[in-house]
Design brief:
This protein has 501 residues and is mainly alpha-helical.
Length: 501
């Protein structure tokens, strides 16, 4: 290892300085390029006043920092992990591939190793050293250097795929929502028509297009048909113009009755941008899912095939529930009224959502997006790192359905579920802070900060006054208050005595 001859690895003592400088320059240049790219992207978003997207970018930077810390830990403790030994019996349990012979590096001839052949030789040499150490005790290493290196790569691949898929999902969902802008423009134009506003009209509830499409009737059988309709509705025309118009009016009449010209479409876009920063992050419970998935990857269980159905089922459950919320809004109006004066108005309420919390829908979307990203990231990692025919990959009959499910989930979530979420979750009992423009939000934040400071100051003054020893009221008024007031009156030129007559 110390020398530079034969087949031994060389260290920095025997590496040409120009090689060290060249490699260091390339790595630093690539890192600075990525850092500058993120920096100028942030400046562009701030210039365009896209604060929610800017905060999402900051969230991505946090995830990159977390990955860097994970990488540092794996590098620092690599030698320590290699010295931990376990029994051969324990190492033969719960394997992702059936162990046929004792070839610990059978899958290391990969595109990554061919790309970095020097790194491969170093890993093999370190793996051999750790194996020799454990062989003396009659045991095997807890985790080989090669396996640790592959785990290192997989974590990065997972994070990159998750962030990329989240960005694509939000971009496609935003594009779908922007197609509804002409509905908003038509409504705004209609509301500016004075003749249309002054005209008194009555609406027959049962003849309204929103009720006809969404209300099937009352009864157990019809309730089941309502859920069935909600399930299939998410695949075609998930949100129609009548749905948008009715839910928009219901939101305005509930939360901003004094502003009937409120731009509901811009509000939805702002709210979706604000939710993006929550979706793009990898929370602690998602890392628990990663550990469980890696644990269940046992040969013969086909765990990844069955796990691929989790985001698939979550997607349909969320889409069906969101469509059913619209049906419930229609049912409430149809059961209470036969005809109404003016336009049809629905009543938003948290009661229509799971556990009366609309935010649970975003949590489920976050989980299904991450799980889908995990499935696809694992597939591409195994394909590149080992091969398509690797035993970890599984049989072709299990691979193809996983890919089809992953692509379907990504497509449906982008073009149906996320747009549905953007409008239906506004049908809760409360509104989001995105209802205010960005400059108004900043003004309210400053006002709240000043109000809190004044409250704390009053509280401190009250506590100080209560702990001070009281003085007699007469002494206090005579010795302090009155002289002060007299002095102020004497020196105040604006106060004049009565003029002599």
């Amino acid at each position: 290892m110390a020398g530079g001859g034969g087949g031994e690895e060389t260290n920095l003592e025997y590496t040409p300085t120009w090689v060290v400088a060249l490699v260091c320059s390339v790595i630093v240049a690539m890192s600075l390029a990525v850092e500058r790219l993120l920096h100028y992207t942030g400046k562009y978003l701030k210039k365009k006043k896209q604060k929610p997207l800017f905060e999402a970018l900051l969230k991505i930077k946090e995830e990159l920092m977390l990955l860097g810390f994970i990488s540092l830990l794996l590098t620092v403790f690599q030698n320590r992990i290699n010295t931990i030994c376990i029994s051969k019996y324990s190492s033969g349990k719960w394997l992702p591939c059936k162990k046929e012979d004792d070839t610990s590096t059978a899958h290391f001839q990969t595109s990554f190793s061919s790309f970095t052949s020097g790194n491969a030789r170093r890993l093999l040499a370190e793996a051999s050293a750790s194996t020799d150490h454990c062989d003396k005790e009659g045991k095997v290493p807890l985790l080989s250097t090669t396996a640790l290196h592959h785990l290192h790569i997989f974590i990065f691949v997972l994070a990159i795929v998750h962030v990329t898929f989240c960005v694509l999902t939000i971009l496609f969902a935003s594009a779908k929502i922007r197609q509804w802008k002409h509905w908003e423009d038509a409504i705004q134009k209609k509301e500016h028509d004075s003749e249309e506003v002054l005209r008194t009209k009555f609406t027959n509830v049962q003849d309204h297009a929103f009720i006809r499409d969404r209300f099937l009737g009352i009864g157990k059988n019809l309730t089941f048909l309502g859920w069935l309709q909600s399930f299939f509705k998410q695949f075609y025309a998930s949100v129609t113009k009548d749905d948008y118009t009715t839910m928009r009016l219901g939101f305005i009449m509930t939360h901003c009755r004094g502003n009937p010209k409120f731009n509901f479409h811009k509000y939805m876009i702002r709210a979706l941008d604000a939710d993006f920063k929550k979706v793009v992050g990898i929370r602690w419970y998602l890392w628990i899912f990663v550990v469980l998935f890696l644990l269940l990857n046992v040969h013969g269980w086909h765990a990844y095939f069955w796990i691929s159905f989790i985001p698939f089922l979550l997607l349909f459950a969320v889409g069906t529930k969101l469509e059913h919320v619209i049906n419930q809004l229609a049912q409430e109006v149809a059961e209470k009224h036969a005809a109404v004066e003016g336009d049809l108005v629905v009543q938003p309420s948290d009661d229509h959502f799971w556990f009366h919390r609309p935010r649970i829908v975003l949590l489920l979307i976050h989980i299904l997006l991450f799980q889908n990203a995990f499935e696809l990231a694992f597939f591409f990692f195994i394909w590149v790192q080992y091969s398509f025919h690797s035993c970890i990959m599984g049989e072709v009959g299990y691979i193809i359905p996983r890919l089809v499910i992953g692509v379907l989930v990504q497509f449906m979530c982008s073009y149906s579920t996320m747009p549905l979420y953007a409008i239906v979750t506004q049908m809760g009992s409360t509104f989001k802070k995105a209802i205010f423009e960005e400059h108004i939000q900043e003004g309210l934040a400053v006002w709240a900060k000043h109000a809190k400071m004044k409250k704390n100051a009053r509280t401190t003054a009250t506590e100080t006054g209560s702990t001070t020893t009281p003085v007699g009221p007469k002494e206090t008024s005579q010795s302090h208050d009155e002289p002060t007031k007299e002095a102020e009156i004497q020196h105040d030129p604006s106060i004049q005595g009565p003029k002599e007559m």
